[in-house]
Structures are given as structure tokens and as C-alpha cells.
Amino acid sequence: MRTILFLIQKEFLQIRRNKQMLPIIFFVPIVQLLVLVFAANFEVKLVYVTLVDYDKSSSSRSLVDKFASTGRFKFVSDYNSEKLAFQEIDKNIAKMALIIPRGFERNISRSEFPEIQIILNAVDGAAAGIIQNYAAQIIYDYNKELVKSMRLIQTQPTISTITVKERYWYNPELNFKFYMVPGILVVLVTIIGMFLTSMNIVKEKEMGTIEQLNVTPIKKYQFITGKLVPFWIIAMFDLALGLFLGKVLFHIPIVGNIFLIFGLASIYLIVALSFALFVSTVTETQQQAMFISWFFVVIFILMSGLFTPIESMPHWAQIVTLFNPISHFIEIMRRVILKGAGFFDVLQQVWILTVYGMVMLILSVWRYRKVSS
Amino acid sequence: MISDKKVIKVENLTKRFGSFIAVNDISFEVGEGEIFGFLGANGAGKTTAIKMLTGLLLPSSGEATVAGFDAFRQSEKIKKNIGYMSQRFSLYEDLTIAENIRLYGGIYGLSNKHIKEQTNILLTKMKLIDYKNSLIASLPLGWRQKLAFAVAMFHDPKIVFLDEPTGGVDPITRRQFWDMIYEAVSEGKTIFVTTHYMDEAEYCDRVSIMVDGKIAAIDTPSKLKQQFNVKSINDVFVRLARPNMALNQ
Fold it and tell me: Which of A165, A238, A249, A254 is the most exposed place for a label (fewest CB within 10 A)?
């Protein structure tokens, strides 16, 4: 135990003396949080639309007005032929083309089937889907008004329509930041913790200082613990800093128990950091360690459910994410912070992380060699 | 001072790296309290041999016991009884002198009080007390080497392995080094030292000369000179390492 304390003290002395280290620990998380939360945003604020109105009727005009009045759609051009409108999309000037065919109004008044066409630039499929959603909502409203006005004119028995009332639980205003901040906090502590840790042992190998340690009777578990604890403390500190900023700057509602958050974070960080220590024991240079860490961190982040829901991944990918510690901790953070989940609600994730952490810790102690062969 | 008790016993010790044989079937013994000089050209296998004896490298075959423990199976027990100074400087440059000593003292399980007292005594003796809180990075090479030696000795080991301790060090510091070595031996320690300064070989009780992974000669400096009928160990070395060159002279 005392040996471990001496090692931890030594790591902190070195961290304090390293001029690049303090900015990494204090400023990187702040910048990451601010930039990522604002940038990783799925909302589409303004859609440029090109219009082809063959009908030029009061009905088509009122539909266009309906689009424009939401403030989300801006009509940038108005053509008499589709060809010119398509060029606008080709040139990336417009994201969407709204085409109203001749006879639109006539079909409405005859109760036939009025049609319009929407063409979307779906290079970014997710954004196209969101725009389509907005458009469908507007057309739905327009339809409802039509039905209402029809009822006034017609004497036929009225058809009732179903109205849907949505309630968004846990995030009633669909505030995108609430959803992103917990996930980004996970990414942030992971990147800092994993990179600092994976570079550490390998740096001692490069400098040759590890030889002097290896020739002492230090136990392997003491060495690994002495390397893990300092970065575990730093990552926990960064998590606290991130949560504080999330609360103050983005008003994230922290519904769950704050002690539960830190308790589960402490388990997760053992997984992430012992993963990094394992990388550090199998590599010989900082370059190798950096490359391997990047490789795994990028895969873990992209498959974490941070940006794309895990449910929409193919089956094999969902199985792979079982081995992705980041995805489990994002799940925990979102549920505890936003839903107020308790320990037993996230028990499955806790189990997986605990077993994972033990395996990685044992692997890194086993793989660390005091005697080379 | 040299007792009959052998603290290092090596028999047919061999280390292969793939097809390359770095240490080829060497055998020797070192008595307690002896200064044993391990000589050889660069690449002769000295460092490989030292790493096997200090438990940093697993031997391929043969037998070796250090302080009564087996180098194959009990390397961690060996580590409790030895001090080691690497050929490559391996203290932390971003820590101060006192912090380095404290770290290693702590790892070897010395008490805080003992570490504190001994640090002051040691640094006063080495005339480095004024630099106690200086970063290693700011010290000249000779001081660093002296400090590395002090750290290797700090936990009072029975056997001290010194790999090229005086490499690149000025003559005065080299002289101080040997004073420190003699002092350690007077305390009953055994010194296993590699060097390529042949004048330093004369300070050793016994020397072995390694050529291409094998021990070409082993005896006291005076007997070796007698055997090869030359004036200095340097000449013995040249005879063994470069037989052709020696003949031409």
C-alpha cells in the first residue's frame, strides 16, 4: 500500500511539472464540451427551398405561405420549370424543391386527390429525414384546415379525424443539449483518461526509467495501481468539472443521484483506464500507443449510441457494442441524469462494466513484464 | 576481505535472441566482498549478462544464482538483495534529487524517517546537498551518474551491479566513483562492475574479459598480465579481443 502511495505521489509530481499537462487536464474538457455540444446538433434551423408552382392558384399560394410562415423554410427561387429548380439542388443552393402541379386547386375543390411533390437533397440522409418531417407536419396542418373548411361548405356527414397529442417525457422541450451533454461528458473523460494513461508506461519504456523500477522488488499489481489511480483521479475531476459546466451553461437537469453518477463513473473509469494500461503494456513507443488508443476510441465513440441510436444498428453491430464500455456508460449517464434512474435500473450495465473492468485490470497486470524474455 | 562464500554463481549461462547468441555458455563465480570487473568490447554481451543476473532478462539456458536465488525462477527475490545502475541513465529527470531518492527508498520499503536522514547524510558526503531540490534534468552527467550509484546503494543491498558507471564521466569524477565503490566494499558489499576503461580494471579484485559472448579470460589483474606477459590489462584486452592487431604490433 505504501509503495503504491509513493508511486502515485511521483506521478502527480511529474504531472505538475509537465507544462503541457495542466492545459490538457483543465482546458481540453471545457473546450470539448462547449464545441461539441453546440456543434453536434441535429436540429435543422433553416431550409432553402426552390419552388415550382405550375398551379399559381390561391390554394397553392396559401400552402407556400404556410411553409414560409414557420420560419424554417426560406424560398430562394421560383421557377416555371422543374429543370431549373433541379439545377438549384445540384448546385447545393437549395436543399429542397417544392413542386405543385397544375390542377392542384381544382383537385381540392372536386375532392379528388390533390398532389404535390417534395424533392430533397438526401446526401445527408439524417438531415433530409428531419426536413421531410417538418414538411409533413406543415402539410398535415394544411390538410386539417382544408377538411375544416370543406365541412362548412359540404352537407355530407362529417368524417372525424384522429388528433395526436404528444408528450415528450424526460426532455419535454426536446432540448437537444440535454441529450448530448451526458454522452459528451463520457467521451471527454474517456479521451483524457485513456490517452494520458496509455502514453504513460510506454513513455517510461522510451525514457528507460522503467528499467530502474523493474529491478526493484515492486509487485506488478502495485505498479499497475500506481499508474491507474492518478489518471483515475484526474478523469473524475474532469467529470465533475464537466457536470458543473453542463449544469451552469446548458442547465442540464440532473434528476438522478449525483453520488450514483460518480460511483458508477468510478467503475467505468477503471475499465477505460485499464484498457489504456493494457495498450501501454503491449506497445513499445508512444506512437504505437497513441495509434492503438485512437483506433479503439474512435470505434468505441462511433458505435456508442452517442450520435446514432444503437437500436438502428445492424444486429451484429449491436452485439459488438456489448463490448463497448463507452456505450454502456453513456446509457447509464443518460438514464441517471435525465430520467433519474437508480442503481437497480442500470444494474445490467453496472454488471457488464464491473466484469469488464476486472478482466482488463487482470490482463494489464498479467501483461506487464518485469522480466523480458 | 573477500570471503569464500560465493554470492554469484553462474554456470553455462546462455542467452539467445533468435539465431543470435548474445551470451554464449559463460561460467564464473563472485565471492562476497569482491570487486568483480566485467570487461569486454561494446556488443560483447556484458549488458545482456548483467540483465540476466539482475532479473530483468530471462536466460535461455544454463544456471545462475544471485544472493542464493535462482535467476530463472526467483528473480523477484534476487531484486530484494541487489542494487542496479543501468548503463542508460534511468532516474526521473523531471523529479528532484531528493524526490528520486525518496521514491526508490519508499519502493524498497524504507521508513520516511530513515529516508530523510540517509538522504541528508548521503548528499552531504557526495557534496550534492545544495542541489537536493534541483531537478535531475539540470545536473551535469557526472553528478547524475554519482546520484544513480547512490540510488542503487540506498536500500543497502548485498550486491551492487554497475553497468558502465563511469561512461562519459571526467577523470576526477571517475576517481570519486572508485572511492565510493571501495567504501561500499569496506561495508561488506559485493560489486559487479562493467567498464571499458582498462585502467579501472586494475582497481578490481578480479576481472573477466568477454569476447563475442564468451568469457575469454578470468583472473586477478596481476595474474592476467603475467599470463599474457604484458604490462597492462589494456594489452591483455587487445590480445584477446583483436588477436590480429596484437600480433601486428
Answer: A165
Task: Give the confidence band of A23 by pLDDT, cuts at 50, 70, 90.
Answer: confident
Classified by CATH at the fold level, domain B6-248 comes out as Rossmann fold (3.40.50)
Of the pLDDT bands very low, low, confident and very high (cuts 50, 70, 90), residue B126 is: confident
When pLDDT is averaged across residues A275-280 and rounded to a whole number, the result is 95
Residues of B in contact with A6 (CB under 8 A): 102-103, 106-107
Residues of A in contact with B94 (CB under 8 A): 13-14, 17-18
Q: What pLDDT, on a 0 to 100 scale, did the predictor assign at position B111?
A: 95
B17 touching chain A per CB within 8 A: no
Interchain proximity A14–B94, CB inside 8 Å:
yes
Q: Which residues sit opposite A274 in a β-bridge? A: none
Cβ–Cβ contact A220 with B under 8 A: no
Domain A47-153 has CATH 2.40.50.140: no
Q: Comparing C-alpha atoms, which of A207, A197, A359 is closest to residue A293?
A: A197
Are the beta carbons of A139 and A70 closer than 8 angstroms? Answer: no
pLDDT of residue B141 exceeding 60: yes
pLDDT at A166: 74
Report the amino acid identity of residue A176. F
Question: For B96, which DSSP code?
Answer: B
> Would you call B28 an interface residue with chain A, using a CB distance cutoff of 8 Å?
no
Across A149-172, average pLDDT? 68
What residue of B is the nearest CA neighbor of A222?
Answer: B107
HSE at residue A160, side-chain half, CA atoms within 13 A, is 3
Instruction: Report pLDDT digits (tens) over B154-181.
Output: 999 999 999 999 988 888 889 989 999 9
C-alpha cell of residue A165: 397529442
Domain edges within chain A:
2-40+175-367, 47-153
How far the first Cα of chain A sits from its last, in Å, is: 29
Q: Do B102 and A6 touch (CB under 8 A)?
A: yes
Residue of A10, A215, A220, A225 to mutate for B, most B C-beta atoms under 10 A: A215
Task: Tell me the CA end-to-end span of chain B in Å, nearest whole number.
Answer: 39
Q: Give me the DSSP letters along A292-358.
A: HHHHHHHHHHHTTTSSS-GGGS-HHHHHHGGG-HHHHHHHHHHIIIII---GGGGHHHHHHHHHHHH
DSSP element (H, E) containing B125: helix B112-125
Q: What are the domain boundaries of chain B?
A: 6-248
Report the C-alpha gap between B150 and B144 in whole angstroms. Answer: 10
| Cα A245–Cα A247–Cα A252 angle in degrees, nearest 5 | 125
Q: Reduced to 3 DSSP states, what percent helix, strand and coil does chain B have, rounded to the nearest 5? A: 40, 25, 30
Mean pLDDT of A196-215: 93
pLDDT of residue A147: 75
A154, pLDDT greater than 80: no
**Is residue B25 classed as helix, strand or coil in its secondary structure?**
strand
* Residue B55 to residue A209, Cβ atoms within 8 A: no
Report whether pLDDT(A157) > 70.
no
